[in-house]
Amino acid sequence: MNKNMLLILTIVAGTRLLAAGPEPRWVRFREQEYPDSRFISALGMGKGDEEAKNAAMNGLALYFKSTVSVQQQILTQYNEVVSGTQKKTEKGTAMSNQVQIASQAEFLGAHFTSPWYNEQNRNWYVLAYINKQEAVELYQNRIAANLTMLETMLTETKEPLQQYQAFKRAASIARCIEADILGLGELSDASTAHRETLEYTRKVMADSRAFRSQLRFSAAIEADRQGRIQRKLLDVLEQNGYVAVRNQGDYTITGEIFCDEETFPKAFFIHSGISLQLNNRAGDLLFSYTKNYERQGARSLNMAYNIAFREMEKDLEANFILAFNAFLGD
């Protein structure tokens, strides 16, 4: 056994000895230590202290009629919006002062006891708990701050595509507000005061979903063989829920296809690439995508072109649409 492994085992053993000791009262007498009148609590057990913490968090989530995965999705989207907002706004504004929520425990206002190791069954135990009064204040303050940020996002005048992006970001903030209002309802009757806010946030989320149908995209591709890339591009957009039209869209994806031929006695090769740009009716460049492809060969020039264009079509399905969705915040 090497020295590093011995050191790790020594640290683990030492940690277990420190966490062992007498059984904490909250293991068997949770109601006495953390009465339901003042706390929400859940006991977690696992082979490691992190596993025990996760189990305890799952227990808390059930109290709020939710799941950890739903909370994580809300938290992830919220942090992405807040992080991006802080980069774009000046210090001192309500938006740039918004603080990211670091963890699910922080999202719920949860705390943990020190982990306890049961030497008899070799399991770790952790109690996750929420102080109801403390959580009410946390949710109230966060609702107010997020509502200010939400209203600021939606009052700025933007062209339609930018407005859609704003709606998508706002929907993430709205989901966090909704979660806080619903969580508040599990803790006290204070949530009734937020009835109009709840209706407003749900309208924002609905408007975000509906706004996409108002945006029409068309495509015009140069050096496109039989219109293959244009058709594929419009098909990919439609498959991802966008409204695609052949001409006169509110936004047009223009593109160029680059192909260099290489001829040998018994084979033909094509070096290809594509460059796409998204413009509005004013001609403003909003998004671009460029890709070069590996050389494709075949026994005839026509077959080589077919293979090269098939690679472009696959790339539009796999990579272009990911970049396009990311640009729109989808």
Describe the fold and architecture:
The chain has 11 helices and 10 strands. It is α+β, with helices and mostly antiparallel strands and 330 residues long. The strands form 2 sheets. Strands 5, 6, 7, 8, 9 and 10 form a 6-stranded mixed beta sheet that branches. A hairpin with a 4-residue loop joins strand 8 and strand 9 (285-292). The longest helix has 28 residues, at 160-187. The radius of gyration is 28 Å and the shape is elongated. The two termini are 51 Å apart.
Count helical runs: 11
End-to-end gap:
51 Å
- Taken from the alpha-carbon principal axes, the silhouette is elongated
Counted beta strands: 10
**In angstroms, what is the radius of gyration?**
28 Å
- Proportion of helical residues: 40-55%
